[in-house]
Fold each of these.
Amino acid sequence: MVAVFPTARLRTSPFHEATIAEGMTSATIYNRMIMPTTYGDPEAEYWRLIEGVSQWDVGVERQVQLKGPDAGRLAQILTLRDLSNCKPGQGKYAPLCNHRATVINDPILLKHADDLYWFSIADSDIWLWANAVIAERGLNVEVSEPDVSPMALQGPKAEAVVASVMGDWVRDLKYFWFRDAEVEGIPVTVQRSGWSKQGGFEIYLRDGRHGTRLWNIFKEAGRPHGIGPGAPTSAERTESGLLSVGGDTDADTNPFEVRLEKYVNLDVPDDTLGIAALRQIAREGPRRHQLGLILEGDVPAPLGFTHEDILLRGAKAGVMTNCVWSLRMKANIGYALISLEAQAGDAVVIMRPSGMTAGTLVELPFL
């Protein structure tokens, strides 16, 4: 087994010691941090998410904080969502693009005040990006990384667990809305969100000294509901059609190619990054789209470290960007980033390390 060599280039989250105690057996690197991927029983972790409540260390979802008189303007420059009516306490899924309209991140934006925003980011350096924009545009705003680390409670029983700790007010939170609170003196921000379609909350710890204590408070509250550890790496995300930017995208992927068109407002200000290129793509139409794949075979065969070519009528038409074994569908399933020539229902061939594998294109989500 290969171990991660400790170095100051990598960081652990405030929940790391708790995840070790829970029996974490594998992890990946995300935003230069260690993110748990399994605790040794992926099937049990999957069903816990589907049927009960799962507790995740997602402290790797770092916050890019914008603070200052121009914070709102910078937030709008960075994202394709129209923020003009965004209220304090409201969050939004807010994809970011570069000048060529390539998706570079898909954070959740949290508006705390007119002069204070967080981007809860996926895996790329948005601090560097935002600071470059500030210098380019001459904005009066400070970009920083606050001491904030999310923990997720996901699954159909997550609301009951969070309400037992925080109070019934959490039941009234709309999706992506949030509220600051305390748990036994520990400062947190509670948001209805999470990288699954099973429902849940993210608890943003705002003092990293209390990671293990916060973890254990929710763990104890979840015992009557069968809580256990998990991670945002199960087949559920693929079954549910959730996008992983950087995994399901490449250096040329624009939002229209990966089902993000409803999160693009073409009438945002002209200085929004990537909007000119996106308006052109909207006029001309994208060249690729994202579909689901159901592969033949009855043995789990997950994707490795690279995308795999997809052949349509003998010619390369796209790539398979992820592949997992679905316990509910009893099949290997994945995503295709593929030419518009290919449509749901088409038979394709995937060039896998084990050889050519037949598959069928389908619409997303699977379930």
Amino acid sequence: MKDDLALCDPDDEAYQERILQGVSRTFALTIPVLPWPLSRVVSNAYLLCRIADTIEDDKHLPPARKREFSELFIDVVAGAQPAARFAEALAPLLSPEASANERDLIAHTPTVIRITHSFNPRQRAALERCVRIMAQGMTVYQEMDVSRGLKDQAAMDSYCYHVAGVVGELLTELFCDYSREIDLHREELQRLAVSFGQGLQMTNILKDIWDDRARGMCWLPEEVFRQYGARLENLSPGSGDKTCEAALAHLIGVARSHLANALRYTLLIPERERGIRRFCLWALGMAVLTLRKINANLDFESGREVKITRRSVRATVLVSNLFTRNDRILRLLFNSLARPLPSRPLMGRFAALSEGGPREQSWIV
């Protein structure tokens, strides 16, 4: 289905393009590789998620106010409340730590929403669903004490779903709306999308362990550490604790298996849809390279030590672009890059949300 671009003000479109570059260097790089008009709706989707994230990350807003603004924003996206009311109420309350671009984005929520409301019904339904699940889920986790970690792998899976898996489902719905050929694989793509999102999110969690700790948060599962005779509270930068390192290696293995599903997802995209494939391959390649750095430096003391270089990013883009349409080479590249990583089977089931409530699904491996 087509969206109604004719309803949009060119100034709104120019603002969306400009602010995307201000709030995310990564997505400002990757989204333009998508075909038009898919890139337009994905840009808008990112900004909606960023607004929800800005609410939850604000250090000065108490939990009750975060919940209030999250629920209001859900209604704004659905068209049930005016965007101006939301922006005018939230903007003055943002903490001094909020960046200038984040403040600007909140103030221009009506601009973003005008674009949101120009999309076709399938696109809008997907955007509304994602924002609702993400905002409500993040509110729950903000109200939890996660300073000592999450209970187990299932709890980590649930967290990853609410902040990343649901985004994978959204993108898949947008891809399917864009292409009838992709839509033929919708069911399998949607299952793999949750795993794709979790692989990327687990990579970020592992990379950002110490940054999160500094903020009083830990998204690692206590149960996994107990399996190796480790105590999560004893995890400290550069400690050299072999039991803790074994638990981290276990989680790297789980993330690697999710990224294997991410490759399966990408190869289901028709070869002629080079932009969508590249969008997926860039994220996948950078995640695998990050896991390699973490795995080679399990006693790292800062996220900077395991951040991939700009040269690695450029190499990922170049190689992905060269072999976008060659499934055999892409499989060989993934297997080669992932070979040094531990491998763990994906156990148990996950609860993805549907209109009828949670539905249990097995991980595809």
